[in-house]
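Project outcomes to date are best conveyed with an example. Our students and postdoctoral researchers have been running inverse folding experiments weekly, and each run begins with a structure described purely in C-alpha coordinates. The record below, which covers 471 residues, was selected by the lab manager from last quarter's runs and is presented without edits.
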Protein backbone atom coordinates (compact mmCIF):
# COMPACT_ATOMS: atom_id res chain seq x y z
CA UNK A 1 0.00 0.00 0.00
CA UNK A 2 2.06 2.88 -1.27
CA UNK A 3 1.45 6.44 -2.24
CA UNK A 4 -0.01 9.62 -0.84
CA UNK A 5 -2.56 12.09 -2.15
CA UNK A 6 -0.80 14.56 -4.43
CA UNK A 7 -3.15 17.46 -5.27
CA UNK A 8 -2.16 19.61 -8.22
CA UNK A 9 0.78 17.47 -9.34
CA UNK A 10 1.74 13.92 -10.16
CA UNK A 11 2.35 11.50 -7.33
CA UNK A 12 5.85 11.12 -5.95
CA UNK A 13 7.86 8.63 -8.00
CA UNK A 14 9.40 7.29 -4.80
CA UNK A 15 5.97 6.04 -3.76
CA UNK A 16 5.05 4.36 -7.02
CA UNK A 17 2.32 5.16 -9.51
CA UNK A 18 -0.78 5.28 -7.32
CA UNK A 19 -2.56 7.18 -4.63
CA UNK A 20 -4.10 5.26 -1.74
CA UNK A 21 -7.83 4.93 -2.34
CA UNK A 22 -8.24 5.17 1.41
CA UNK A 23 -6.83 8.72 1.38
CA UNK A 24 -8.87 9.75 -1.64
CA UNK A 25 -12.09 8.65 -0.01
CA UNK A 26 -11.19 10.63 3.09
CA UNK A 27 -10.37 13.77 1.13
CA UNK A 28 -12.32 16.93 1.99
CA UNK A 29 -11.43 18.89 -1.15
CA UNK A 30 -11.14 18.18 -4.86
CA UNK A 31 -7.70 17.79 -6.40
CA UNK A 32 -6.46 19.22 -9.68
CA UNK A 33 -4.63 16.06 -10.70
CA UNK A 34 -4.48 12.67 -9.04
CA UNK A 35 -2.91 9.38 -9.97
CA UNK A 36 -4.61 6.19 -8.78
CA UNK A 37 -4.24 2.51 -9.50
CA UNK A 38 -6.04 -0.62 -8.42
CA UNK A 39 -8.05 -3.65 -9.46
CA UNK A 40 -11.43 -3.38 -11.14
CA UNK A 41 -14.32 -4.63 -9.03
CA UNK A 42 -17.05 -3.78 -11.53
CA UNK A 43 -17.50 -1.89 -14.79
CA UNK A 44 -20.71 -0.43 -16.23
CA UNK A 45 -20.82 0.93 -19.77
CA UNK A 46 -22.93 3.52 -21.54
CA UNK A 47 -22.58 4.98 -25.01
CA UNK A 48 -20.41 7.93 -24.04
CA UNK A 49 -18.57 6.74 -20.92
CA UNK A 50 -17.93 3.87 -18.49
CA UNK A 51 -18.13 3.67 -14.69
CA UNK A 52 -15.36 1.62 -13.05
CA UNK A 53 -15.20 0.72 -9.39
CA UNK A 54 -11.55 0.16 -8.45
CA UNK A 55 -9.98 -0.96 -5.20
CA UNK A 56 -6.28 -0.94 -4.34
CA UNK A 57 -6.51 -2.99 -1.14
CA UNK A 58 -5.90 -0.05 1.20
CA UNK A 59 -9.46 0.01 2.54
CA UNK A 60 -12.91 -1.47 2.18
CA UNK A 61 -14.24 1.34 -0.01
CA UNK A 62 -14.01 1.44 -3.80
CA UNK A 63 -13.13 4.49 -5.88
CA UNK A 64 -15.52 5.28 -8.71
CA UNK A 65 -13.85 6.32 -11.95
CA UNK A 66 -15.70 7.92 -14.87
CA UNK A 67 -13.87 7.22 -18.12
CA UNK A 68 -15.24 9.06 -21.14
CA UNK A 69 -15.04 7.46 -24.55
CA UNK A 70 -12.13 8.99 -26.41
CA UNK A 71 -9.73 9.66 -23.53
CA UNK A 72 -6.27 8.08 -23.88
CA UNK A 73 -6.53 4.37 -23.08
CA UNK A 74 -10.32 4.14 -23.52
CA UNK A 75 -9.88 1.74 -26.44
CA UNK A 76 -8.99 -0.92 -23.84
CA UNK A 77 -12.08 -0.35 -21.67
CA UNK A 78 -13.69 -3.63 -22.77
CA UNK A 79 -10.65 -5.48 -21.46
CA UNK A 80 -11.01 -3.85 -18.03
CA UNK A 81 -13.26 -6.47 -16.52
CA UNK A 82 -13.49 -7.68 -12.94
CA UNK A 83 -10.01 -8.47 -11.63
CA UNK A 84 -8.08 -6.43 -14.20
CA UNK A 85 -5.57 -3.88 -12.92
CA UNK A 86 -5.63 -0.29 -14.16
CA UNK A 87 -3.89 3.05 -13.65
CA UNK A 88 -5.91 6.26 -13.83
CA UNK A 89 -5.03 9.94 -14.10
CA UNK A 90 -7.71 12.58 -13.59
CA UNK A 91 -9.43 15.00 -11.25
CA UNK A 92 -11.05 14.22 -7.93
CA UNK A 93 -14.52 15.79 -8.10
CA UNK A 94 -17.68 15.77 -6.03
CA UNK A 95 -19.75 12.72 -6.93
CA UNK A 96 -23.13 13.12 -8.60
CA UNK A 97 -24.31 9.82 -7.13
CA UNK A 98 -25.28 8.98 -3.58
CA UNK A 99 -22.89 6.08 -2.96
CA UNK A 100 -19.72 8.13 -2.46
CA UNK A 101 -18.64 11.71 -1.77
CA UNK A 102 -15.88 11.78 -4.39
CA UNK A 103 -15.15 10.23 -7.74
CA UNK A 104 -12.42 10.53 -10.35
CA UNK A 105 -13.10 12.13 -13.70
CA UNK A 106 -10.43 10.35 -15.71
CA UNK A 107 -8.30 12.20 -18.23
CA UNK A 108 -6.48 8.98 -19.14
CA UNK A 109 -6.73 5.32 -18.20
CA UNK A 110 -4.24 2.51 -18.74
CA UNK A 111 -4.72 -1.24 -18.66
CA UNK A 112 -1.93 -2.77 -16.56
CA UNK A 113 -3.02 -6.39 -16.34
CA UNK A 114 -5.96 -8.01 -18.13
CA UNK A 115 -8.13 -10.51 -16.25
CA UNK A 116 -9.87 -13.20 -18.33
CA UNK A 117 -13.51 -14.13 -17.82
CA UNK A 118 -12.54 -17.20 -15.81
CA UNK A 119 -11.35 -14.97 -12.92
CA UNK A 120 -12.86 -16.89 -9.97
CA UNK A 121 -13.86 -13.85 -7.89
CA UNK A 122 -16.74 -12.52 -9.93
CA UNK A 123 -19.29 -10.36 -8.13
CA UNK A 124 -21.23 -13.02 -6.24
CA UNK A 125 -21.14 -14.83 -2.94
CA UNK A 126 -18.41 -17.39 -2.29
CA UNK A 127 -18.15 -19.92 0.52
CA UNK A 128 -15.23 -19.86 2.95
CA UNK A 129 -14.32 -23.39 1.88
CA UNK A 130 -14.11 -22.34 -1.78
CA UNK A 131 -11.98 -19.32 -0.91
CA UNK A 132 -9.56 -21.41 1.16
CA UNK A 133 -8.84 -23.30 -2.05
CA UNK A 134 -7.77 -20.07 -3.74
CA UNK A 135 -5.96 -18.49 -0.81
CA UNK A 136 -3.65 -16.71 -3.25
CA UNK A 137 -6.64 -14.70 -4.53
CA UNK A 138 -8.98 -14.45 -1.55
CA UNK A 139 -7.32 -11.28 -0.10
CA UNK A 140 -9.01 -9.42 -2.97
CA UNK A 141 -12.46 -10.09 -1.50
CA UNK A 142 -14.03 -7.60 0.89
CA UNK A 143 -14.08 -10.02 3.82
CA UNK A 144 -10.53 -11.29 3.55
CA UNK A 145 -9.09 -7.94 2.56
CA UNK A 146 -10.56 -6.61 5.81
CA UNK A 147 -9.33 -9.68 7.69
CA UNK A 148 -5.72 -9.25 6.74
CA UNK A 149 -5.70 -5.49 7.23
CA UNK A 150 -7.01 -6.15 10.74
CA UNK A 151 -4.31 -8.77 11.23
CA UNK A 152 -1.63 -6.26 10.23
CA UNK A 153 -2.95 -3.56 12.55
CA UNK A 154 -3.33 -5.96 15.46
CA UNK A 155 0.26 -7.11 14.96
CA UNK A 156 1.43 -3.51 15.14
CA UNK A 157 -0.67 -3.02 18.28
CA UNK A 158 1.03 -5.98 19.97
CA UNK A 159 4.44 -4.38 19.48
CA UNK A 160 3.11 -1.00 20.59
CA UNK A 161 1.62 -2.48 23.79
CA UNK A 162 4.96 -3.88 24.89
CA UNK A 163 7.00 -0.90 23.75
CA UNK A 164 4.82 1.41 25.84
CA UNK A 165 5.63 -0.74 28.89
CA UNK A 166 9.38 -0.99 28.39
CA UNK A 167 9.56 -4.58 27.15
CA UNK A 168 12.37 -5.71 24.85
CA UNK A 169 11.54 -7.70 21.72
CA UNK A 170 13.63 -10.87 21.48
CA UNK A 171 13.91 -13.14 18.44
CA UNK A 172 13.96 -16.74 19.62
CA UNK A 173 14.94 -19.63 17.32
CA UNK A 174 12.50 -21.42 15.05
CA UNK A 175 14.67 -24.56 15.10
CA UNK A 176 15.19 -26.07 18.54
CA UNK A 177 16.32 -29.22 20.32
CA UNK A 178 13.98 -28.61 23.29
CA UNK A 179 10.35 -29.63 23.65
CA UNK A 180 8.89 -26.82 25.73
CA UNK A 181 5.52 -28.43 26.35
CA UNK A 182 6.77 -32.01 26.71
CA UNK A 183 3.95 -33.38 24.56
CA UNK A 184 6.23 -34.61 21.78
CA UNK A 185 4.06 -33.12 19.03
CA UNK A 186 6.97 -31.61 17.12
CA UNK A 187 8.06 -31.49 13.50
CA UNK A 188 11.47 -33.09 12.89
CA UNK A 189 13.99 -30.98 10.98
CA UNK A 190 16.50 -33.11 9.08
CA UNK A 191 18.68 -33.13 5.98
CA UNK A 192 18.65 -36.94 5.79
CA UNK A 193 16.91 -38.26 2.69
CA UNK A 194 13.89 -40.33 3.77
CA UNK A 195 13.67 -41.90 0.28
CA UNK A 196 17.20 -43.26 0.28
CA UNK A 197 16.30 -46.46 2.10
CA UNK A 198 19.03 -45.77 4.63
CA UNK A 199 18.06 -45.04 8.20
CA UNK A 200 21.02 -42.81 8.98
CA UNK A 201 21.87 -41.51 12.43
CA UNK A 202 21.99 -38.15 14.15
CA UNK A 203 25.76 -38.15 13.51
CA UNK A 204 24.96 -37.94 9.80
CA UNK A 205 22.36 -35.21 10.20
CA UNK A 206 22.91 -31.47 9.81
CA UNK A 207 22.73 -30.54 13.51
CA UNK A 208 24.26 -33.85 14.74
CA UNK A 209 21.27 -34.25 17.06
CA UNK A 210 17.48 -34.34 17.00
CA UNK A 211 16.17 -30.95 15.90
CA UNK A 212 12.59 -29.74 15.55
CA UNK A 213 10.49 -26.73 14.70
CA UNK A 214 9.71 -24.84 17.87
CA UNK A 215 6.41 -25.15 19.72
CA UNK A 216 7.24 -22.09 21.83
CA UNK A 217 9.90 -19.45 22.34
CA UNK A 218 9.27 -19.45 26.08
CA UNK A 219 12.29 -21.33 27.39
CA UNK A 220 14.73 -19.21 25.40
CA UNK A 221 12.71 -16.13 26.34
CA UNK A 222 13.13 -16.93 30.01
CA UNK A 223 16.91 -16.74 29.68
CA UNK A 224 16.62 -13.18 28.38
CA UNK A 225 14.06 -12.18 31.01
CA UNK A 226 16.64 -13.26 33.58
CA UNK A 227 19.05 -10.75 32.06
CA UNK A 228 17.00 -7.87 30.63
CA UNK A 229 13.96 -7.92 32.93
CA UNK A 230 10.86 -7.76 30.74
CA UNK A 231 10.94 -9.23 27.24
CA UNK A 232 8.54 -10.65 24.70
CA UNK A 233 8.71 -12.86 21.62
CA UNK A 234 6.27 -12.79 18.71
CA UNK A 235 6.77 -15.36 16.01
CA UNK A 236 5.63 -18.57 14.31
CA UNK A 237 5.31 -21.81 16.25
CA UNK A 238 4.56 -25.33 15.06
CA UNK A 239 2.74 -28.35 16.43
CA UNK A 240 2.44 -31.74 14.76
CA UNK A 241 -0.95 -32.34 16.34
CA UNK A 242 -3.18 -34.37 14.04
CA UNK A 243 -6.24 -32.24 14.68
CA UNK A 244 -8.62 -30.89 12.07
CA UNK A 245 -10.76 -28.75 14.34
CA UNK A 246 -11.65 -25.14 13.54
CA UNK A 247 -9.34 -23.93 16.33
CA UNK A 248 -6.10 -25.76 15.50
CA UNK A 249 -3.41 -25.26 12.88
CA UNK A 250 0.03 -26.79 12.46
CA UNK A 251 1.64 -23.37 12.06
CA UNK A 252 0.48 -20.40 14.08
CA UNK A 253 1.84 -17.27 15.71
CA UNK A 254 2.43 -16.81 19.43
CA UNK A 255 2.91 -13.72 21.58
CA UNK A 256 4.99 -14.68 24.63
CA UNK A 257 6.11 -12.13 27.24
CA UNK A 258 8.37 -13.07 30.15
CA UNK A 259 8.84 -10.88 33.22
CA UNK A 260 11.57 -11.13 35.84
CA UNK A 261 10.71 -10.44 39.50
CA UNK A 262 7.07 -11.24 38.74
CA UNK A 263 4.59 -13.65 40.32
CA UNK A 264 1.29 -15.16 39.18
CA UNK A 265 -0.66 -12.09 40.27
CA UNK A 266 1.45 -9.80 38.09
CA UNK A 267 1.22 -12.29 35.25
CA UNK A 268 -2.58 -12.28 35.35
CA UNK A 269 -2.63 -8.49 35.62
CA UNK A 270 -0.55 -8.05 32.45
CA UNK A 271 -2.45 -10.68 30.47
CA UNK A 272 -5.82 -9.13 31.29
CA UNK A 273 -4.50 -5.66 30.51
CA UNK A 274 -3.16 -6.86 27.16
CA UNK A 275 -6.44 -8.49 26.14
CA UNK A 276 -8.34 -5.29 26.92
CA UNK A 277 -5.78 -3.16 25.09
CA UNK A 278 -5.99 -5.26 21.93
CA UNK A 279 -9.78 -5.46 22.03
CA UNK A 280 -9.92 -1.68 22.32
CA UNK A 281 -7.54 -1.45 19.36
CA UNK A 282 -9.92 -3.59 17.33
CA UNK A 283 -12.85 -1.38 18.28
CA UNK A 284 -11.24 2.00 17.70
CA UNK A 285 -8.59 1.71 15.00
CA UNK A 286 -9.66 -0.55 12.15
CA UNK A 287 -10.66 2.04 9.50
CA UNK A 288 -14.14 0.62 9.10
CA UNK A 289 -13.01 -2.96 8.49
CA UNK A 290 -14.75 -4.20 11.63
CA UNK A 291 -18.10 -3.33 10.02
CA UNK A 292 -17.60 -6.16 7.50
CA UNK A 293 -17.49 -8.72 10.29
CA UNK A 294 -20.42 -7.13 12.10
CA UNK A 295 -22.54 -7.32 8.97
CA UNK A 296 -21.56 -10.67 7.48
CA UNK A 297 -20.03 -12.74 10.31
CA UNK A 298 -21.34 -11.82 13.75
CA UNK A 299 -23.93 -9.10 14.31
CA UNK A 300 -23.25 -9.16 18.06
CA UNK A 301 -19.50 -8.72 17.63
CA UNK A 302 -19.14 -5.09 18.67
CA UNK A 303 -21.27 -5.53 21.77
CA UNK A 304 -19.21 -8.51 22.91
CA UNK A 305 -15.93 -6.70 22.32
CA UNK A 306 -17.12 -3.60 24.17
CA UNK A 307 -18.25 -5.81 27.05
CA UNK A 308 -14.75 -7.34 27.36
CA UNK A 309 -13.06 -3.95 27.02
CA UNK A 310 -15.18 -2.32 29.71
CA UNK A 311 -15.60 -5.06 32.35
CA UNK A 312 -13.06 -6.50 34.79
CA UNK A 313 -12.10 -10.15 34.47
CA UNK A 314 -13.55 -12.60 36.94
CA UNK A 315 -10.93 -14.75 38.68
CA UNK A 316 -11.63 -18.27 39.89
CA UNK A 317 -9.42 -21.18 40.90
CA UNK A 318 -9.47 -24.34 38.83
CA UNK A 319 -10.86 -26.26 41.83
CA UNK A 320 -13.77 -23.85 42.21
CA UNK A 321 -14.38 -23.79 38.46
CA UNK A 322 -14.70 -27.59 38.41
CA UNK A 323 -17.15 -27.43 41.33
CA UNK A 324 -19.23 -24.79 39.54
CA UNK A 325 -19.33 -26.85 36.35
CA UNK A 326 -20.23 -30.04 38.21
CA UNK A 327 -23.04 -28.26 40.00
CA UNK A 328 -24.41 -26.58 36.89
CA UNK A 329 -26.85 -29.32 36.00
CA UNK A 330 -25.76 -28.92 32.39
CA UNK A 331 -24.94 -31.96 30.25
CA UNK A 332 -21.53 -31.42 28.64
CA UNK A 333 -20.09 -33.48 25.81
CA UNK A 334 -16.81 -33.87 27.70
CA UNK A 335 -16.71 -34.97 31.36
CA UNK A 336 -15.93 -32.50 34.12
CA UNK A 337 -13.63 -34.00 36.72
CA UNK A 338 -10.85 -32.68 38.90
CA UNK A 339 -7.57 -33.51 37.19
CA UNK A 340 -8.88 -33.15 33.64
CA UNK A 341 -8.28 -30.19 31.35
CA UNK A 342 -11.20 -27.88 30.84
CA UNK A 343 -12.61 -28.10 27.31
CA UNK A 344 -13.78 -25.22 25.15
CA UNK A 345 -17.43 -25.94 26.00
CA UNK A 346 -16.63 -25.68 29.73
CA UNK A 347 -14.67 -22.47 29.27
CA UNK A 348 -17.38 -20.84 27.19
CA UNK A 349 -20.10 -21.83 29.67
CA UNK A 350 -18.17 -20.18 32.48
CA UNK A 351 -17.72 -16.92 30.57
CA UNK A 352 -21.01 -16.78 28.67
CA UNK A 353 -23.54 -18.26 31.08
CA UNK A 354 -22.19 -18.36 34.63
CA UNK A 355 -19.95 -15.35 35.21
CA UNK A 356 -21.17 -13.55 32.07
CA UNK A 357 -17.79 -11.87 31.71
CA UNK A 358 -14.21 -12.74 30.71
CA UNK A 359 -12.70 -15.07 33.28
CA UNK A 360 -9.23 -16.05 34.48
CA UNK A 361 -8.86 -19.57 35.89
CA UNK A 362 -5.76 -20.22 38.01
CA UNK A 363 -3.94 -22.87 40.08
CA UNK A 364 -4.27 -26.07 38.02
CA UNK A 365 -3.36 -29.62 39.10
CA UNK A 366 0.33 -30.22 38.57
CA UNK A 367 -0.30 -33.48 36.69
CA UNK A 368 -1.85 -31.72 33.67
CA UNK A 369 0.69 -28.92 33.31
CA UNK A 370 4.28 -28.74 31.97
CA UNK A 371 7.42 -29.12 34.05
CA UNK A 372 8.37 -25.43 34.21
CA UNK A 373 5.36 -24.19 36.22
CA UNK A 374 5.90 -23.25 39.86
CA UNK A 375 4.65 -25.74 42.41
CA UNK A 376 2.29 -24.28 45.00
CA UNK A 377 2.70 -24.92 48.71
CA UNK A 378 -0.16 -27.46 48.64
CA UNK A 379 2.07 -29.74 46.51
CA UNK A 380 -1.01 -30.45 44.36
CA UNK A 381 -1.34 -27.42 42.10
CA UNK A 382 0.91 -25.14 40.08
CA UNK A 383 0.73 -21.40 39.51
CA UNK A 384 -0.86 -21.70 36.06
CA UNK A 385 -3.57 -19.48 34.63
CA UNK A 386 -5.81 -19.41 31.55
CA UNK A 387 -7.71 -16.35 30.33
CA UNK A 388 -11.11 -17.21 28.90
CA UNK A 389 -13.27 -14.97 26.72
CA UNK A 390 -16.83 -15.37 25.43
CA UNK A 391 -17.16 -17.00 22.03
CA UNK A 392 -13.68 -18.57 22.06
CA UNK A 393 -12.74 -19.92 25.46
CA UNK A 394 -9.02 -19.88 26.24
CA UNK A 395 -7.14 -17.04 24.59
CA UNK A 396 -4.12 -16.84 26.93
CA UNK A 397 -2.28 -19.47 28.92
CA UNK A 398 0.55 -18.71 31.34
CA UNK A 399 2.18 -19.31 34.69
CA UNK A 400 4.73 -18.26 37.23
CA UNK A 401 7.83 -20.27 36.35
CA UNK A 402 9.57 -22.56 38.83
CA UNK A 403 12.60 -20.61 40.00
CA UNK A 404 13.79 -23.05 42.72
CA UNK A 405 16.54 -25.26 41.36
CA UNK A 406 15.78 -28.35 43.43
CA UNK A 407 12.06 -28.24 42.67
CA UNK A 408 12.69 -27.69 38.95
CA UNK A 409 15.03 -30.68 38.82
CA UNK A 410 12.41 -32.83 40.57
CA UNK A 411 9.77 -31.65 38.09
CA UNK A 412 12.01 -32.54 35.15
CA UNK A 413 12.63 -36.00 36.55
CA UNK A 414 8.90 -36.51 37.07
CA UNK A 415 8.26 -35.56 33.43
CA UNK A 416 11.04 -37.80 32.15
CA UNK A 417 13.19 -35.00 30.74
CA UNK A 418 16.90 -35.55 30.25
CA UNK A 419 19.02 -33.03 32.16
CA UNK A 420 21.63 -32.92 29.40
CA UNK A 421 19.03 -31.51 27.01
CA UNK A 422 18.08 -28.67 29.34
CA UNK A 423 21.33 -27.85 31.11
CA UNK A 424 21.33 -24.33 29.67
CA UNK A 425 17.81 -23.78 31.03
CA UNK A 426 18.73 -25.11 34.47
CA UNK A 427 21.64 -22.64 34.61
CA UNK A 428 19.15 -19.76 34.91
CA UNK A 429 18.12 -21.27 38.26
CA UNK A 430 21.65 -22.13 39.28
CA UNK A 431 23.04 -18.63 38.79
CA UNK A 432 21.06 -15.79 40.34
CA UNK A 433 17.56 -17.24 40.05
CA UNK A 434 14.62 -14.88 40.49
CA UNK A 435 10.84 -15.26 40.53
CA UNK A 436 9.55 -14.77 37.01
CA UNK A 437 6.38 -15.35 35.03
CA UNK A 438 4.99 -15.21 31.53
CA UNK A 439 2.23 -16.30 29.22
CA UNK A 440 1.43 -17.16 25.64
CA UNK A 441 -1.34 -15.68 23.54
CA UNK A 442 -2.26 -17.39 20.30
CA UNK A 443 -2.40 -14.55 17.78
CA UNK A 444 -4.91 -16.39 15.57
CA UNK A 445 -7.16 -17.04 18.57
CA UNK A 446 -7.10 -13.32 19.27
CA UNK A 447 -8.00 -12.55 15.66
CA UNK A 448 -10.88 -15.03 15.75
CA UNK A 449 -12.18 -13.29 18.84
CA UNK A 450 -11.98 -9.72 17.54
CA UNK A 451 -13.46 -10.55 14.11
CA UNK A 452 -15.95 -13.27 15.00
CA UNK A 453 -14.44 -15.62 12.41
CA UNK A 454 -15.11 -19.22 13.43
CA UNK A 455 -12.25 -21.03 11.70
CA UNK A 456 -8.54 -20.48 12.27
CA UNK A 457 -7.96 -21.17 8.55
CA UNK A 458 -9.70 -17.88 7.81
CA UNK A 459 -7.51 -15.61 9.94
CA UNK A 460 -4.09 -16.72 8.70
CA UNK A 461 -2.92 -16.02 5.14
CA UNK A 462 -1.92 -19.57 4.21
CA UNK A 463 -3.18 -22.22 6.61
CA UNK A 464 -1.09 -25.28 7.43
CA UNK A 465 -3.26 -28.13 8.71
CA UNK A 466 -3.03 -31.95 8.56
CA UNK A 467 -2.93 -33.00 4.92
CA UNK A 468 -2.82 -29.41 3.65
CA UNK A 469 0.34 -27.50 2.71
CA UNK A 470 -0.68 -25.57 -0.39
CA UNK A 471 0.71 -22.32 -1.72
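After processing, the design step wrote out the following sequence:
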Amino acid sequence: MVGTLQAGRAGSRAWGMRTLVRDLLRSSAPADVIHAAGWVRTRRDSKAFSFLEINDGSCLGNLQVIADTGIPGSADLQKMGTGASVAVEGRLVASQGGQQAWEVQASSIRLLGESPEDFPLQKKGHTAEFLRGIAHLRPRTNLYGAMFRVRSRMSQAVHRFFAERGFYHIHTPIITASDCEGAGEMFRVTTLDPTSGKSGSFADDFFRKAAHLTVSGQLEGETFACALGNIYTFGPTFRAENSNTSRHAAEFWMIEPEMAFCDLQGDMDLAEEMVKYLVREALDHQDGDLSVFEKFVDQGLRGRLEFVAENPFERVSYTDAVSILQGSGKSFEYPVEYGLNLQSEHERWLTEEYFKKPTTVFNYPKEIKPFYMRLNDDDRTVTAMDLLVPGIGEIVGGSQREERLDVLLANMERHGLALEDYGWYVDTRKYGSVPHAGFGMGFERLLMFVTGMQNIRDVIPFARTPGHCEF
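The chain has a mean pLDDT of 91. The chain has two domains: 13-113, 138-458. The training component of this project remains on track.
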